[in-house]
């Protein structure tokens, strides 16, 4: 694409974002690095609407990086409830402690350094560097951004090549707005199935617009289930029960989750769930009791 054509595309996308971008909670707040860190970890595997609902209360309870690092892990897990994938709560807590201990409480701005922290992968590191520190040379490529760019260019690329080309497409001085706009376009128009090409601000330049783009079938991960419910949901139910009660025996938990009296099969299933949570440090055993970690 010629430089002048790409400049037209940039102007169109940034103007669209200024007028029609999603009014998300954090876009109305200062880009304070700690808040960006927390929200990006939350957004890794949780819907935007749920993060918007629960982020304020979490930040009220843990208003600073130091407050999060000093809090008992049990408190962090308790306040994480409702966000799912509770392992992230432990990793965020460990991340805060490592920043305090090894970086003087200052969140690093360099993606390579950020990726050395617990729970921070390539995407989250790029998002923090861009949205918290204003880096203009770091492409932020989530699922939405990747889909938009690949359809715009008309080809699928290995992630490494895609990131390299995405960096070349960042408009000078507007990296944050550019990436936020691409995320919104992917969420609103360039959807996995039935993309709304006629409404998309990129349609003029998109090589696949109006060509009946369909999503590839997603490879389904095999996740153990019990009574038709995935294991991750049983994990969440058990953690919420322990967080609310303070401590419970496995028998008490089974009675609440399955009804009284639980069957031997139900007890065995719940024991495997509890064992996994204990191994991951999300629960601890105290004699016959299950409790949150100290």
Provide keyphrases for this structure:
294 residues; mainly alpha; three-stranded antiparallel β-sheet; two-stranded antiparallel ribbon
Could you characterize what this model shows?
This protein has 294 residues and is mainly alpha-helical. It is built from 14 helices and five strands. The strands form two sheets. A three-stranded antiparallel sheet has the order 3-5-4. The protein has a two-stranded antiparallel sheet with strand order 1-2. The mean pLDDT is 91.
Overview in brief:
The chain is mainly alpha-helical and 294 residues long. The protein has helices spanning 3-20, 33-42, 48-61, 65-70, 73-80, 87-103, 111-114, 122-131, 143-153, 159-168, 175-188, 231-245, 250-258, 264-279; strands spanning 225-226, 229-230, 247-249, 284-286, 289-291. Helix 1 (3-20) crosses helix 11 (175-188) and helix 13 crosses helix 14 (264-279).
